[in-house]
Design a protein that fits this description.
This protein is an alpha+beta fold. A hairpin with a 5-residue loop joins strand 4 and strand 5 (about 115-120).
Length: about 650
């Protein structure tokens, strides 16, 4: 029976025609498992996942394998991007049982949802053997499997990072040292292959002044490597090698949103032309490749085209010559490091950048590449990731004088308000202008609030602060754990075998650190001690995790802002006035960690209330906790004030 045909998830729709009798996640699947007295086989993945496609082709499209699955299990398919809560609790079990995780995730569990055997990708022959073995054990050793599932649930329930005292300057110094020990001096980044773009750790290092130039070295290496699309812009998900040469080619919105913002912040600190170019190209790529008709941004581009990973992106010397002619092909091969041996597979090469970008060759190759079969797109809109993009587009638009990017950020804000917000609560996804049924999780609330507050800093529009406040009040009302931390799901969300609560940052800011950052900024704009206290309490996990600094990068970045105030900059005046705009731009160029900016007149934003122009001229007030220094009226004076910290 085809139960996935009405799904809003492109990933589930990819499996709608499988011979497997898939159920979507829901009570119907558990009821069927209890009725048939069989285990549940849970398969979790996402639309752009290469190995998910491989397992689908090998096993889920194979009639023999499907027959085994249908006869002996109730089979449930989940899009991890639609249900990060389901993914989180079962990935925790998978990692606990196997020591590793990844997608596709394959979990066998009781009809009560208790996992008893977990894994990731299985080749077809091994998977068929596993199906037979698990089914046999369910028939002959059921009590042992049920007991094992209960033990896993109990063990996971006892885990957790304890809150400690708030982070101190010593905490941040320790984290810098930890990052330094794993820093790759030769190629940038941290640790060995595979290497993921460490956006949040880099943001933390930039806020700390980039000690050892770890951030600058890594950002330049990534921008010149094969992980970055040298023709069209945008970053792939990770590099399979330590040199950033060969990526896993899927492109995710969340990576590119965070990277556009951190490259803009690198430019703000160092003025590097490469940083400016990459930040803008990444924003342009997001809008061009992921933009939806409704004004949002789609989730991802696949790694494959024509069933082959990377085919859309790689080049051989012969292909260069066919497009450019022999002489220009030689120039391109040198500039982009395309070799006869190839840096990828079958003599093809990813494009890396040697020296300056040859714009003429780039445009000709990009035009030729447009005729290739494009990777598939996962076009669902995820609230959290669009919140991250909102912040990046707003800041890049303001810093680089690109009002079209700010307008794009405002379109995202409008879409989320119109489609994703219902009675002050968030829905996680939408597609083709239709909202999904799944409730937003903590990261959705945190990242959308972060994006709205960034938009306010750029535009001065008070409604963005009001909207962020509604979401953050919902966080305080529905996600708190009673001990200063936050759960990843609301108190009225669907109950799983445990309520997920992950204090670490992964490929996106963890819900807890994301919430802390948005709460801190909101408190700086409004003077709300309740929101500031909640932000500082949420940072109580940072110090215990500082010895694993790569996995709490955003928490450390927020802690840096908290320890510096953060600085509050109120620009009093109209943005239609050139003098106001000059002061506003100076404020946005501040490198004080997490500096909070507002601009306008009136008392709708408490930080602006009671602040007046000086002798009729626009004025800037630099404050901490609403205690302000004397106002200044020129960019030079404001720069001097900001330099004092």
């Amino acid at each position: 029976m085809n139960r996935l045909k009405d799904a809003t998830s492109p990933y589930l729709l990819q499996h709608a025609d499988n011979p497997v009798d898939w159920f979507p996640w829901g009570e119907a699947a558990f009821e069927e498992a209890r009725r048939r007295d069989v285990p549940i086989l849970l398969s979790v993945g996402y639309a752009a996942c290469h190995w998910c496609h491989v397992m689908a082709h090998e096993s889920f499209e194979d009639p023999e394998t499907a027959e085994l699955m249908n006869a002996r299990f109730v089979n449930v398919k989940v899009d991890r991007e639609e249900r990060p809560d389901v993914d989180a609790v079962y990935m925790e079990a998978t990692q606990a049982l196997t020591g590793q995780g990844g997608w596709p995730m394959t979990v066998f569990m009781t009809p009560d949802g208790h996992p008893f055997y977990c894994g990731t990708y299985f080749p077809r022959g091994r998977f068929q053997g596993l199906l037979n073995a698990v089914s046999g054990a369910w028939g002959n050793q059921r009590e042992k499997l049920v007991e094992q599932g209960q033990q896993i649930v109990e063990a996971l329930g006892e885990q957790g990072v304890q809150h400690g005292p708030g982070p101190t300057e010593a905490t941040l110094a320790q984290a810098v040292q930890v990052l330094g020990r794993s820093f790759d001096e030769q190629y940038g980044g941290f640790g060995t292959a595979p290497k993921f773009p460490p956006s949040m750790a880099l943001e933390f290092l930039l806020r700390q002044g980039d000690p050892g130039r770890m951030a600058a070295r890594t950002l330049e290496a990534m921008a010149r490597g094969g992980i970055y699309d040298q023709l069209g812009g945008g970053f792939a998900r990770y590099s399979v090698d330590e040199k950033w040469i060969v990526p896993h080619f899927e492109k995710m919105l969340y990576d590119n949103a965070q990277l556009a913002r951190v490259y803009a912040h690198w430019w703000r600190r160092d003025g590097a032309p490469l940083a400016r170019r990459v930040a803008l190209e990444t924003c342009d790529w997001m809008l061009r490749e992921l933009g939806t008709a409704e004004g949002g941004l789609a989730s991802a581009l696949d790694a494959d085209s024509e069933g082959v990973e990377g085919r859309f992106y790689v080049w051989t010397p012969e292909q260069l010559a066919e497009v450019l002619g022999e002489e220009d092909a030689a120039r391109a091969a040198h500039a982009f490091k395309v070799t006869r041996e190839g840096t990828f597979e079958h003599g093809s090469s990813t494009l890396q950048l040697e020296g300056d970008l040859p714009e003429d060759l780039r445009y000709r190759l990009l035009e030729a590449r447009a005729s290739r079969v494009r990777p598939a797109r996962d076009d669902k809109v995820v609230a959290a990731w669009n919140g991250l993009a909102m912040a990046a587009l707003a800041e890049c638009g303001a810093l680089f004088d690109r009002p079209d990017l700010v307008e794009a950020a405002e379109r995202i804000a409008a879409l989320i308000e119109e489609l994703h917000v219902v009675d002050g609560r968030l829905l996680r996804t939408s597609r083709d202008g239709v909202a999904g049924a799944n409730a937003g999780v903590l990261e959705d609330y945190a990242d959308v609030a972060e994006g709205l507050l960034a938009l306010h800093a750029v535009t001065g529009r008070p409604e963005y602060v009001r909207r962020a406040g509604v979401l953050l009040d919902a966080v305080l009302a529905h996600f708190g754990d009673g001990r200063g931390g936050f759960y990843d799901t609301a108190d009225d969300a669907e109950a799983l075998f445990r309520r997920p609560k992950d204090p670490t940052d992964n490929v996106t800011p963890g819900g807890q650190s994301g919430a802390a950052g948005a709460l801190l900024t909101y408190a700086a704009l409004t003077g709300s001690q309740e929101h500031r206290a909640a932000a500082l309490a949420a940072l109580g996990v940072v110090a215990p995790l500082a010895k694993h600094a790569r996995f709490v990068g955003w928490g450390l970045a927020v802690a840096s802002a908290a320890l510096h105030g953060p600085l509050e900059i109120a620009i009093v005046g109209s943005l239609e006035d050139p003098e106001t705009r000059a002061l506003h731009r100076t404020a946005l160029m501040s490198t004080s960690p997490g500096a909070v900016v507002t601009v306008g007149r009136g008392d709708e934003i408490p930080l602006l209330a009671g602040r007046e122009p000086v002798d009729g001229r626009p004025a800037a007030y630099v404050c901490r906790d609403f205690a302000c220094r004397m106002p200044v009226t020129t960019p030079a004076e404001l720069s001097a004030e900001l330099a004092l910290g």
